[in-house]
Amino acid sequence: FLHLQHCFPAQTLFAWSLLVWTFAAVIVPVVITLWCSIQRSKRKTHMKQFFRQSRHGWHYTDLFSKPTYCCVCSQHILQGAFCDGCGVCADEQCLRRADRELSCKEIMAPSRADGVVFHRWVRGNVPLASYCVVCKQQCGTQPKLCDLRCVWCQTTVHDECMDSLLDATQCNLGEFHNLIIPPHYLYQVNKLRRRHADEYKKLAMDCGDGWTPILVLANTRSGNNMGEALLGEFRSLLNPVQVFDLSQLAPAKALQLCTLLPPGCVRVLVCGGDGTVGWVLDAIDSMKLKGQDQFIPRVTILPLGTGNDLSNTLGWGAGYAGEIPVEQVLRNILDAGVVKMDRWKVQVSSKGLSIRKPKVLSMNNYFSVGPDALMALNFHTHREKTPSFFSSRIINKAVYFLYGTKDCLVQECKDLDKRIELELDGERVALPSLEGIIVCNIGYWGGGCRLWEGMGDEPCPPTRLDDGLLEVMGVFGSFHCAQIQVKLANPVRLGQAHTVRLVLKSSTMPMQVDGEPWAQGPCTITITHKTQALMLYHSSEQTDDDDDESEVEL
Ligand SMILES: [Zn+2]
Ligand SMILES: [Zn+2]
Ligand SMILES: [Zn+2]
Ligand SMILES: [Zn+2]
């Protein structure tokens, strides 16, 4: 007992020291981490506020992807901010000075009396693999803030070659001058007392023949954050005023810039999926309603995400993942031809509910009822339930495949031909034993398969994007659908028509328009021609004639 009493204080001491050390080892790092993250978020919100009022389009990065030097203090920096318009970089300490002292690319500015446009040189951080316009050697190779780039024409030149640059002041806006809205044009339009198309045409004479300014509308929500990077690249190559982020501004607002440009020459590049293209085309249709017919632009696509059938039909591919540089994208647009594309109105009138207004949808790609719509609908509802699970593309594919095969077993669309009536241009069509009907406007369906032509083993009536005709096909079931997708089978051709009417007599069926699925009870569906859109198409083979406006068969 005595022994115990003797050692008790030592034990308490030990326990206390253990407690203190545990506290130090666990709590202190936690507190430090918390404090750091609070400071960090404080700094971030502070920075955001500053970015909002600044003259540049600043973006903050924790790590620059290439060797970068601060444009103010010339130090090598790992983190800091860069302006995607003019390419100025600065570390946090120099950011305010950079914003105050270095001017950005001017989106609107008066031209000189003699009409000469000056280069706008920015020193340092020239793009990798850029070459000096004077000595043709590579620029930006020295480990310091060196060499210059013009933010308009993208010409690069060594510091030491600058003196021997012959036209050191004259800038012709470079390779993409036909796509850029020059600052002086906007300045003059802004000064106009009477804003009229004829005045714009007069002003456009300063911009050269063949001037076809482009507006870039990017959806940053589609396709793996590609949109964000594209916005930056287009801002640096073009006038930042002609580049729009659709998450900040609706297409209808962005398209109003068309009404300040000469009619008939404007192009709109939509960066996004087929859904985004439909959104922009709807906004263009509403321009027609506002009486702005003459200002309607031609639409071209840079597809983001995967399986974009409309984009694929027009020759722009099913999905862009950076395979070709943005400069090449612009070159392809300069070479593109114009084609008219039919757009359709899908009217769904539910049976018995005459009080309710019929549902009206716009269609560019296809309408379908049956297995492929069911697949899309199952996928859609499960994605709504557990969105986080569907963030990966591979999981998406697996799930899509599982739902497709599951339907093989349950046969939810069985005996469609007994429950549905099909009329093409007012004439009833006798249906074989079917599970699904697909109505196509464009050549591709289901993420890259040519449905109407099939495998080309039998001749078929030709299709065009502008013939005002829809192609109507039938499928025997989801297994048949899958076979068609891997090009092992053809759908049943039911015919071509200007107007398609479907009457669903009983039960609920899955339906979709342009990939947007829903479940539909007994109803009448009428698909009629709505309007035509002016689209640009890309033909991969180089043609000799540069007759841009010729319309070809697609
Ligand atoms: Zn600095
Ligand atoms: Zn800038
Ligand atoms: Zn220049
Ligand atoms: Zn040089």
Automatic annotation (TrEMBL):
Domain DAGKc residue range list: 209-350
UniProt keyword Zinc-finger, yes or no: yes
Catalytic reactions of this protein: 1-eicosanoyl-2-(5Z,8Z,11Z,14Z)-eicosatetraenoyl-sn-glycerol + ATP = 1-eicosanoyl-2-(5Z,8Z,11Z,14Z)-eicosatetraenoyl-sn-glycero-3-phosphate + ADP + H(+); a 1,2-diacyl-sn-glycerol + ATP = a 1,2-diacyl-sn-glycero-3-phosphate + ADP + H(+); 1,2-di-(9Z,12Z-octadecadienoyl)-sn-glycerol + ATP = 1,2-di-(9Z,12Z-octadecadienoyl)-sn-glycero-3-phosphate + ADP + H(+); 1,2-di-(9Z-octadecenoyl)-sn-glycerol + ATP = 1,2-di-(9Z-octadecenoyl)-sn-glycero-3-phosphate + ADP + H(+)
GO MF entry, a single one: zinc ion binding
EC number: 2.7.1.107
CDD domains recorded: C1_DGKepsilon_typeIII_rpt1 (cd20801), C1_DGKepsilon_typeIII_rpt2 (cd20853)
Keywords: ATP-binding, Cytoplasm, Kinase, Lipid metabolism, Membrane, Metal-binding, Nucleotide-binding, Repeat, Transferase, Transmembrane, Transmembrane helix, Zinc, Zinc-finger
Database matches in Pfam families: C1_1, DAGK_acc, DAGK_cat
Major localization listed first in the record, in broad terms: cytoplasm
Ranges of residues in domain Phorbol-ester/DAG-type: 55-104, 118-171
SUPFAM superfamilies recorded: Cysteine-rich domain (SSF57889), NAD kinase/diacylglycerol kinase-like (SSF111331)
Record has Electron transport as a keyword: no
Biological processes per GO annotation: glycerophospholipid biosynthetic process; phospholipase C-activating G protein-coupled receptor signaling pathway
Ranges that cross the membrane: 13-38
Pathway(s) per entry: Lipid metabolism; glycerolipid metabolism; Glycerolipid metabolism
A cellular component annotation (GO) from this entry: membrane
Localization of this protein: Cytoplasm; Membrane
Domain of life: Eukaryota
Family affiliation: Belongs to the eukaryotic diacylglycerol kinase family.
Protein's job: Membrane-bound diacylglycerol kinase that converts diacylglycerol/DAG into phosphatidic acid/phosphatidate/PA and regulates the respective levels of these two bioactive lipids. Thereby, acts as a central switch between the signaling pathways activated by these second messengers with different cellular targets and opposite effects in numerous biological processes. Also plays an important role in the biosynthesis of complex lipids.
Protein name: Diacylglycerol kinase
